[in-house]
Amino acid sequence: MGEEMTTVDMEAIVSLSKRRGFIFQSSEIYGGISGSWDYGPFGVELKRNIKNVWWRDMVQRRDDIVGLDAGILMHPRVWEASGHVEGFTDPLVDCKSCRKRFRADHVKDGRCPECGGELTDPRMFNLMLRTFLGPVEDDASITYLRPETAQGIFVNFANVLDVSRRKLPFGIAQMGKAFRNEITPRNFTFRTREFEQMEIEYFVRPGTDEEWHRRWVTERFEWYVRYGIRREYLRLRQHEGDELAHYAKATFDIEYLFPFGWAELEGISNRTDFDLRQHALFSGRDITYYDEDTGAHVVPYIVEPSGGVDRAALAFLVDAYREEKVRKRKRVVLRFHPELAPIKVAVFPLLRNRPELVTAAKDIASDLRPHMMTMYDDTASIGRLYRRQDEIGTPFCITVDVETLEDNAVTIRERDSMEQIRVPIPEVRHTLLRKLGRL
Ligand code: ATP
């Protein structure tokens, strides 16, 4: 195993993301657009894997949570009831010299961070992206791209309750795109204008909310550790005073130590009964839970673990990144948890000009493809092929060499230890599935 050389800096992550095809700047050929990023062939796999394990752990493996997929466009009254039209704002300041704009709470000494110029007084700027529905662009057709997925869950509470026949406590999970017109998108994919959220609204009896809040904070913290984030790079931070949102009784952020400092990965809030009461008030509908035991109608309290898929992907990427020295040469490796690794196995022929080796390698790849993301590659020397796979975090590489033609066995190389074992071809699939924890 190689020794570590450096701690990661953001430049290295951005450059690897582009070079290897994790993340590209949106609309790059037109000069790019701020606050929007595109996931390339390996980035999309990483993101899908994160979403899949989240759904599996939060929905499939629990008997108290069901899923939902609500629309991005909703009735504009939703955003009045939720408080977003009135209060989803950030304080904005302009520099009087260079005209750049900043979030007042991100400016340290009251001067422009770019040129040191004088700043205007802060004014409130609504972060929702407005749009018009239908062919007429007037006030009556204004609505918003959802700034959070949560509201789709609240307005469907009664529908889901009806069809799922759940008893409290129970949860509804959803993931999907959300949009915020952030004043200063920055830090790569950390703060963007378009992003994906994964949210659970967990409905509980009033009075049990604080206990459930604690349980969810622990559950979600441990989830990041389970998929490989180093515990000492995670911390909890409680919101205090005016940082607390208007709907929340208490909020804890799970923060990760990014190269640019500690920053929020996920927020876990005790939202009380605020949301269901607001929607009942604005819609005129009865949004309560009928308690068969007591015969009373209850407005449940809500505990909300709300995470960002993109921020999770960035944290997993940053945390997995290592620069090591192996036999005096630098090795860049992404030590992804095997469940998150975009490609599980790569298969190479040692010599690409030997058709028997190429055929054998391609056959092995075809055999593995139905079971795991598999890649065949013969476009470089073996050393370079290994390096490429290390850089995208592939846990296993298989090499077909000349001996294979005699012993019908191949070499499996493990990413982190770089150890190699010889395995008969008929046992390859089984061996990999076992090593990936799937058997
Ligand atoms: P911040 O304080 O960083 O602006 P927030 O507290 O407003 O974030 P929440 O409203 O709690 O964020 O959103 C829940 C989750 O959605 C966040 O923990 C984060 O992972 C994700 N998220 C929110 N805003 C963005 C954004 N602009 N870009 C990427 N992810 C985001």
Task: Kindly describe this structure.
The chain has 439 residues and is of the alpha+beta class. It has 13 helices and 24 strands. It has helices at 10-20, 41-60, 76-81, 84-87, 150-155, 157-164, 209-226, 274-283, 309-320, 355-368, 382-392, 404-407, 428-435; strands spanning 3-4, 23-25, 37-39, 65-67, 89-94, 101-103, 123-126, 129-132, 142-145, 170-179, 194-204, 234-238, 250-258, 261-272, 289-291, 296-298, 301-308, 321-326, 329-334, 345-349, 374-376, 396-400, 409-414, 420-424. The strands form 7 sheets. Strands 4-10-11-17-14-13-12 form a 7-stranded mixed beta sheet, with helices on both faces. Strands 21-20-22-23-24 form a 5-stranded mixed beta sheet, with helices on both faces. It has a 3-stranded antiparallel beta sheet with strand order 1-18-19. A hairpin with a 6-residue loop joins β5 (89-94) and β6. The chain starts with a strand and ends with a helix. The model is unreliable at 1-6 (pLDDT under 50).
Kindly list the characteristics that best describe this protein:
439 residues; alpha+beta; seven-stranded mixed β-sheet; five-stranded mixed β-sheet; 29% strand; globular; disordered N terminus; binds adenosine-5'-triphosphate
